[in-house]
Amino acid sequence: MAVHRYRAPRSPPLSSHLPAQAPGGTSLGAPPGRSLGQTPAERSALVHDHGLARLNALSAEAAEAVLMQCCGSRRWAHRVAAHRPYPDSGALRAAADEASYDLGGADLAEALAAEFPPELGHGAPYAARLALDAAHAEYERTFGHAFVVCLDGHPPEERADQLLGAIRRRMGLDPEEERAISADELRRLARSRLADLTDWLISPDGVGAAETGLFAPVG
User: Fold this and answer.
1) How many angstroms separate the Cα of 156 from the Cα of each of 3, 58, 124, 185?
2) Per-residue model confidence as pLDDT tens digits over 118-154
């Protein structure tokens, strides 16, 4: 499970940027229901493909706006948007990785400034939440930006130990080494958030955002 707070795109208009059909006339409405014999994996792939079609169909400014929710670098969002249309999710991930590897110092600083420190759920022990808050504060005083980490593959019950262990290990690193690790964690988070984004674009909230103009153009 990725440790991040996915934020749905917000304010002014996207209705004019989001067509009802993808190029070639493919409908961008809700994905078809499960057909006889369709496996969960096939259903999941269908959902991702349908969300990718919606991402491909956005205008350049609308695509950049939603992609900024995956990585806070404008250069990263512009590059990923500019390489559309993507034939499949693998091509999207590859383009996102390439854009991540090419981030310069200012781009990385911009992306890190947009991050929030990962949190534990309300059900986590109070002592663990207190310890994590203190660790975050110390980390930000030391490195000047939020702690970022991707915990894909770790079950939720391990999150507290994994977060505290990771932040304490990395507190001992020099700034350049920690910056390189943070850049790689941002790359991994962006990949995970892209999967969330393509799912979100075909959810009721995502469709509603398109209809009511909740995607903000990148200014």
Assistant:
1) 9, 34, 10, 18
2) 888 778 888 989 999 999 999 999 999 999 999 888 8
